[in-house]
Design a protein that fits this description.
The protein is an alpha+beta fold. The protein has two domains: 37 residues, no CATH class; 134 residues, 2-Layer Sandwich (GTP Cyclohydrolase I, domain 2). Helices cover 42% and strands 27% of the residues. It contains eight helices and seven strands. The strands form two sheets. The chain has a five-stranded mixed β-sheet with strand order 5-2-3-6-7. The chain has a two-stranded antiparallel ribbon with strand order 1-4. A hairpin with a 5-residue loop joins strand 2 and strand 3. Helix 1 packs across helix 2 and helix 4 packs antiparallel against helix 5.
Length: 183
């Protein structure tokens, strides 16, 4: 924490700020604590996040968790991207606790990321813990690195998907998922 606080102090001084002024006096430490929180996914494991919440089930129908909000930091500019994630899987004798799907999303989102990798990491993790027949993940988000700087396109958004197992090999399964997550 101390080295991160010092780094933020240096950044503020580099942009021309006086870190001894009232409004900034505690900012380096607050920023360090915020960064620690925003990247807490580095200190979590899939096993810890799932915490044994895998349950026997005879369900073999698609399970979908829609509109899981996510907040991540672009690894290129350290600016936020914010959006929603839809996760679906086809169980094979086991289902995962509902909140654990959102926790998996958060664990990977709370790391420096690009959206394409985040999408694949979530899909791979859900497939690993459920042992399902297939997994589909779609992420829709807005990237502050594109909105606040560079091309400054306020209405732009990015959509990525990862389809594993039957979601990749069976067009009907994929289409069912896509039709169920459309607004």
């Amino acid at each position: 924490m101390e080295s991160m606080t010092s780094a933020y102090r240096s950044i503020l001084e580099s942009v021309g700020e006086d870190v001894s002024r009232d409004g900034l006096r505690d900012t380096p430490e607050r920023a360090a604590k915020a960064m620690e929180f925003l990247t807490r996914g580095y200190h979590q494991t899939l096993e810890e996040v799932v915490n044994g919440a895998i349950f026997e089930s005879d369900s073999d129908e698609m399970v979908i968790v829609r509109d899981i909000e996510l907040y991540s930091l672009c690894e290129h500019h350290l600016l936020p991207f914010i959006g929603k994630c839809h996760v679906a899987y086809l169980p094979r004798g086991k289902v995962i606790g509902l909140s654990k799907v959102a926790r998996i999303v958060d664990m990977y989102a709370r790391r420096l990321q690009i959206q394409e990798s985040l999408t694949k990491q979530i899909a791979t993790a859900v497939l690993e813990v459920t042992g399902g027949i297939g997994v589909g993940v779609i992420i829709e988000s807005q990237h502050m690195c594109m909105m606040m700087r560079g091309v400054q396109k306020q209405n732009s958004s990015m959509t990525t998907s990862a389809m594993l197992g039957r979601f990749r090999s069976d067009i009907n399964t994929r289409n069912e998922f896509l039709s169920l997550v459309r607004d």
